[in-house]
């Protein structure tokens, strides 16, 4: 029988156990092991069946058992202690509170996905997990941040694999009442409703769910409410589900609706309004337009409001893969960006923000990342290499500037150690190293013997092996209409075999099947009688990506071969819960993307935090952290003739490393069976690499390098009735007006006949300013090593000074080029090159490239 309606009835927990409800209501349990132990104690078996989700668990627990505990003084005391601990965590001063004055009041952090726990499946992959970890670390550090996202009724999707290896998607409906969420309400108790005006007089409405992630509130907008038409109720049905118009509606809701929800929440809760807005990827870019509309309503022009919004906005790009960037049909966007939706905003001004550089504005696709960068004065990529790649990729937005000038910095991602460190490692850190802080424990200490450490690692490997067998058996039954799984499934994998993990989404650039380049070679590595290797693999392909599904199918079919199936397994339905068992169980984490398309990658970080070594292409985070003790670098064949040759070369290097370096090292044992050198490397990784990989390091960097400057800049701009924003907008308009005529007309150099190191090059440059004053412009010499391809390397810059104007008459006429002079010391031997350029100058610009205006000597 199929129910016509479903809902969740919450458990009645005895009053004396109210601490349990309070603890279940704050998602800190998702990373706080002591709280989990408190729940587990109630019924360890049921706890596992409920996938360690306290809300579901309390709904299922036998009331008699709760009655029993309500009479157990020891348990009541334990629960009260944990409750007091939570309350203290929520209120005590933490790192951010020690920073003193001039810090952001509130940061609004927007992301289309948040991965907090598998019980709240609102994520598809790395971006979501990162956003979840960002909130958790912000909570730990006391950073006043509000998360803003959407509530997707079916999340992303659940994956199963058909007997012939094809991915199948299911969309189980989530019941928000069965989750630790509450509705944002007005003081009279009615739910807050966010409304967006749509074309033809229609409206889109949303309610707002609140989740508590430690000290952080996450707001999630949900259109599945009766005030919407049936069609509009489905706007938040799935994450990355639809294309075109459906996706546009989601992003209008996230950006515009999200900004409105933040306003309701802060005023209802008495939280200071945000002074910093953080957009993750282009998806939430419309929030900038909503804020511009608000300032226009307060009397500013579009250009003035834009300056104000930019000052307090941070844009983070998370991918160099074009398919990862949203682009909409211009006509479609035009239909939605009306003055009913955004009062006071001229649609043409809004549309111009999304025009791709160099494209015809009348036909250009509307590019969300480009809009994001135009709306944010502060921008970053997510690893050093990705910062470089982004400066090139988006360089056309700042035409005439070198990639090095492009104002996109980088902050390398990190992962939240308490979420991602296995309880077994936490336990051994507590019992032998005297700390529960696994990220900063002294893992090299003699207090912990290699044998004991290796034993813990074996336990984690065994846990993975058992978990994998259970998952495969369940998947089998599901695919074979309930029949029991065959016996061989209960024997797959082995807790004493070198275990390699590979799990991630399956876009082509991640090359799930690189390992299958030479199937015979892989087969012999897996089945090596002395040094066997086993692989545990998982990953979801986007439902519309048949190419990705074909890759999964190839892999699954390879792994189905009877002589290999206990050495290589594909586990369906990769999620946070699986990830938390997978990383600790692996000895080696494999990552082989096409360099440089992995912006950062975080799974290898999580593996390292659980005592795995990395075997990876030098991409993303690994490009800046790789070290001999931390794992192995798979050389990239960047110079290969074509993609096929590149794959073949990189796969060959992978096999060679696995067979002759990784496996040999792993099976090198002492008399007690401990791989001493391997363990030394793993302990070194935990001691010196793991502390660099934490989300706490990342969030501190965001606060110091981006949030704080953004808040300060926004404060300057808004002070005194937004005087600076008005001034800057007026000045920028004047400079733009003159710029077509600004020219470096002539450059003379002297002082060196046959140049030697130490000589001084004297420069005289004549610059036509077209009525701009010398204060409006910086004239500078840009110099360095000149290269054969006519570029300058190792670039340095020095300002030239305007020569004093002695003749009052010519100054007044201000016509004709102005003379600038300066010197450059030739302090290096070798090929030298220089040029002279003029760029706009204003104290409120953060970068010389900001306006995208430059005049270079020709
Ligand atoms: C960490 C993680 C990811 C991201 O992994 P990448 O290495 O960045 O691709 C995806 N899914 C889950 C469940 C994760 O835990």
Low-confidence stretches: none
Give the N-terminus to C-terminus distance in angstroms.
79 Å
The CATH homologous superfamily of the largest domain is named Glycogen Phosphorylase B
Average pLDDT metric: 95
Tally of helical segments: 27
Explain what this protein looks like in three dimensions.
This protein has 858 residues and is an alpha/beta fold. The protein has 4 domains: 15-91, no CATH class; 95-159 and 167-413 and 702-719, Glycogen Phosphorylase B (Rossmann fold, 3-Layer(aba) Sandwich), CATH 3.40.50.2000; 417-693, 3-Layer(aba) Sandwich (Rossmann fold), CATH 3.40.50.2000; 742-856, Immunoglobulin-like (Sandwich), CATH 2.60.40. The protein is 38% helix and 18% strand. The strands form 6 sheets. Strands 1, 4, 7, 8, 9, 10, 11, 12, 15 and 16 form a 10-stranded mixed β-sheet that branches. Strands 23-24-27-26-25-28-29 form a 7-stranded antiparallel β-sheet, with no helix packed on it. Helix 7 crosses helix 26 (695-738) and helix 10 (286-297) packs across helix 11 (302-311). It starts with 17 loop residues before the first helix and ends with a strand. Residues 125-126, 129, 504, 574-576, 579, 601-603, 606 line the site of pyridoxal-5'-phosphate.
